[in-house]
From TrEMBL, chain A:
Protein name in UniProt: ABC transporter permease
A biological process term (GO) from this entry: transmembrane transport
ABC transmembrane type-1 domain ranges (all copies): 84-264
Localization per record: Cell membrane
Family the UniProt entry places it in: Belongs to the binding-protein-dependent transport system permease family.
GO cellular component: plasma membrane
InterPro entries reported for this sequence: MetI-like, MetI-like_sf
Transmembrane regions listed in the UniProt entry: 26-49, 88-110, 122-144, 150-166, 209-234, 246-267
Naturally occurring in which organism (per UniProt): Rhodoplanes roseus
Topology of this chain in the membrane: Multi-pass membrane protein
UniProt keyword list: Cell membrane, Membrane, Transmembrane, Transmembrane helix, Transport
Automatic annotation (TrEMBL), chain B:
Keyword Nucleotidyltransferase carried by entry: no
Keyword Nucleotide-binding: yes
Provenance organism: Rhodoplanes roseus
One Pfam family this sequence matches: ABC_tran
InterPro entries xrefs: AAA+_ATPase (IPR003593), ABC_transporter-like_ATP-bd (IPR003439), ABC_transporter-like_CS (IPR017871), ABC_transporter_ATP-bind (IPR050166), P-loop_NTPase (IPR027417)
GO MF, any single term: ATP hydrolysis activity
Keywords on record: ATP-binding, Nucleotide-binding, Transport
Protein name as annotated: ABC transporter ATP-binding protein
Length: 280, 259
């Protein structure tokens, strides 16, 4: 019983502390937010009024207003929503699959020194090979479907996660493993109780990198083949000398990348709550 | 149950990459630790102290001779031994109570009983109020006490302490020596204290085993004939304690080496 009471106490204490911390950081952040917004206003102003003042034509640099107008037209006439969702879907699924495979291979190789030595030269070769160069090949194999884009994304996300996980498996504190061995723990228990949680920070760092790379994979996949997605809109806009369309597509791709990154960072913050964060 | 520990003619050699001669960590080492006794092992660095620890814990076997616990030869990790290092080895992602439960998880013990035993040990180490904190929220001394609670929670028959206080500041160290000595006196567990600190060895043990430089051989066994093993600070005030420390100081030729 006393244990339960302690639990409840600790939980409510945690919530209180978290709320207090949130308030404190909001108060601290207020000037920062104001500064960031001020920079945004300056940049958008320069973008809107700079090019016409310098006599740069709109097919070289469209103004902010031009891009907004083109955005409205794209939504209405080019079914932008469909293109956006297609790209978003491939990014998310490709990222998820690439992460899952990368982590699984990283842990598997981390558990077996023999396989790691046997496979690592091939992995290094594949890692160095430019993944985007595979895109045309995948189109030859799978045609103008979602598969080539998904594969390029998966492949480009796969390696940084694999490398991070493998590295972390090799640097797990030997004394912790020995402690578990002295307690008679099985190999599986040592993995789940020591190695897997020890590798979490490295896995999350890999996922952050993967999140930023996923969008590159999708974009290249869409450049090369198909008639859907933001990457396709970039090549389409280029063909029509519609610079505003290219701008808009780039901005939306960035939005997808940021969303993935922020999602990973939020998960990381929850999972790695036990690591004391440096305060500036 | 309280068990005795014996080293009988133990030699441990490690192969060295690129060399034909193996590296000898300890050589023909024999000593006895009686049931319920605290024996301190001192020696210059590199006298094979961690090798001794690994062999008792069953993580590593001797090349020659044998290590016996309660008369039985050690061939692998057993449930008799608990060990503690200079590093606390607390898992940062677990709360303190979950860390104390760690050693019990490989045994068939119901979750509720595990929690109960862990809380009992934390009570004993006066950490019950911090049961649901994470290790990074505790001071170095508290973390080391939590490590002791984890070590004792498995109810070992023998406890190995490998320089458990050497990473702490001088005052925390004294307080912790006192609290460890009290806790160990309460439990009556057979204890091997591996240490660099000669006064710690004298103040906390029944007997001091002195090892030579690499390869570690037995140089001397010094029984500490002082009352109050559970109270190192009290012992520290006895003039005879300082005679023992001086004696160890001379045995290890520390003065000559410093010259």
């Amino acid at each position: 019983m006393s244990v339960n009471v302690l639990d409840a106490d600790a939980a409510s204490g945690r919530t209180r502390r978290r709320l207090a911390a949130a308030n404190a950081s909001l108060a601290q952040m207020a000037p920062d937010i104001a500064l960031t917004l001020a920079i945004a206003v300056v940049v958008l102003g320069a973008w809107q009024f700079g090019p016409p003042l310098l006599g740069v034509p709109r097919y070289i640099i469209p103004t902010f207003g031009d891009c907004l107008a083109e955005f409205g037209r794209m939504v209405a006439q080019e079914s932008l929503g469909r293109h956006f969702l297609a790209t978003l879907w491939v990014s998310v699924v490709g990222f998820a699959l690439g992460s899952a495979f990368g982590a699984a291979f990283g842990y598997a190789l981390g558990l077996s020194a023999v396989w790691e030595r046997a496979i690592s030269p091939y992995l290094l070769t594949l890692q160095i090979a430019p993944k985007v160069a595979f895109a045309p090949l995948f189109i030859m194999w799978f045609g103008y479907t979602a598969w080539p884009k998904l594969l390029v994304t998966l492949l480009i996300v796969f390696f940084p996660i694999l490398v991070n996980v493998l590295q972390s498996m090799k640097t797990v504190d030997r004394d912790l493993v020995n402690l578990a061995r002295a307690y008679n723990m099985s190999r599986a228990a040592i993995f789940w109780k020591i190695e897997f949680p020890s590798s979490m920070p490295a896995l999350m760092a890999g996922l952050r990198i993967g999140a930023t790379l996923a969008v590159i994979g999708v974009t290249v996949g869409e450049f090369v083949g198909g008639n859907v997605g933001l990457g396709f809109l970039i090549t389409y806009g280029e063909g029509q000398a519609n610079t505003a369309m290219v701008f808009n597509a780039i901005i939306l791709l960035t939005v997808i990348g940021i969303a993935l990154y922020v999602a990973v960072a939020a998960i990381e913050k929850r999972l790695l709550h036990y690591i004391p964060r440096a305060t500036h | 149950m309280v068990l005795a520990l014996d080293f009988i003619g133990v030699t441990k050699r490690f192969p060295v990459a690129g060399k034909r001669e193996p590296f000898t960590a300890v050589e023909k080492l024999s000593f006895h630790v009686g049931a319920g006794e605290i024996v301190a092992v001192v020696g210059p660095s590199g006298c094979g102290k961690s090798t001794i620890l690994n062999m008792v814990a069953g993580l590593d076997g001797p090349t020659e001779g044998e290590v016996r616990i309660g008369g039985e030869r050690v061939t692998g990790p057993t449930r008799h031994v608990g060990f503690m290092l200079q590093k606390d080895l607390l898992l940062p992602w677990r709360t303190i109570v979950a860390n104390v439960e760690f050693g019990l998880e490989s045994r068939a013990i119901a979750r509720a009983e595990r929690r109960e035993r862990a809380m009992r040990e934390l009570e004993r180490c006066r950490l019950a109020d911090f049961a649901h904190h994470y290790p990074h929220q505790l001071s170095g001394g508290m973390r080391q006490r939590a490590a002791l609670a984890r070590t004792l929670a498995v109810e070992p028959d023998i406890v190995l302490l490998d320089e458990p206080f050497s990473a702490l500041d001088a005052q925390t160290k004294m307080i912790l020596q006192e609290s460890f000595a009290t806790t160990i006196a309460e439990t009556g567990i057979t204890t091997v204290l591996i240490t660099h600190d000669l006064s710690e060895a004298v103040l906390m043990s029944d007997r001091v085993v002195v090892l030579s430089e690499r390869p570690g051989r037995l140089v001397e066994e010094l029984p500490i004939d002082l009352p109050g093993r559970g109270d190192p600070m009290g012992r520290g005030r006895m003039p005879r304690a300082h005679d023992y420390i001086d004696h160890l100081f001379n045995t290890l030729h520390l003065a000559e080496r410093a010259a």
